[in-house]
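Dear colleague,

Following up on yesterday's call, I've attached the two folding results inline so they're easy to grep. Please treat them as preliminary; we haven't cross-checked anything against experimental data yet. The first protein's sequence and structure tokens come first.
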Amino acid sequence: MSKFTDFNNKLGMKITKMVGSMGAAYLFAVIALISLPAAITSGNVIVIVSWVAQTFLQLVLLSIIMVGQGVQSQASDARTEKMLQHISRDNDRIIKELNDLLCKK
């Protein structure tokens, strides 16, 4: 990889970790809530719905979804590790049994 690509990958990972945190979700919620009074006082239903959909949901849920995906990924990794350990134990047992059978002949 080029230095430029390596830099972009590192920067992308750093930003993803920052945005995909509950701290970022709380910060985005506060930022979104700053504009809530203006949306409510407008009295316009479209403005209020737009605030909910475009401001609050997009800002806050993005980070929360990223956190949830990280948690799911960790759980999946743990399940995979457990399954691989089980398979490895089974393989060791089968090899031992085959060796025992071959030695008996």
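Below is the second protein, in the same order (sequence, then structure):
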Amino acid sequence: MKVLDIGCGSNKTPGAVGIDARPGPNVDIVWDLDQRPWPFSGDEFEAAVCRHVLEHLQDVVGTMAEIYRICRPGSLVLIQVPHFSNAYAFGDPTHRHFFSSRSMDRFIQDSSYHFRDQCRLTLVRKRLSFAGPGRYLIAPWANRMLNWFERHLAFILPGQDLTFLLRVDK
């Protein structure tokens, strides 16, 4: 299985092709991810991993369209970003975007917010993680009612990371 680890840094997914803006021991391709097209042909990868990268890039919509372009039909795409209630989301001056549980709706086919001409993805799973004891007490409850939780409790009981697992439908 050919996997792309986008913005891999030093924590590249084992066996994946790693692309990052900075050279490093695990980086196979040095590339500015804000420059498109990326140096891959269409439908090249069977899976993509994008952990803590999307919040740093200029154009989320363009980046998601590029991920869609390089992934084969049926590919799985793992996106992990800091939740907007995470203190580090706003504490890192290199973060350009902030994410909620609805941030990927624009790319998901069954959503009323679907951006139809860029990509067609299916949501497989989304999870909000918590730090400390909250990961055991709050996470199961909050993930059952994410929209309500974000509107009413997110800044009282802040989340940590959002993880989206998406499937490419072409």
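For the second protein, one point worth flagging: The mean pLDDT is 94.

Best wishes,
A.L.
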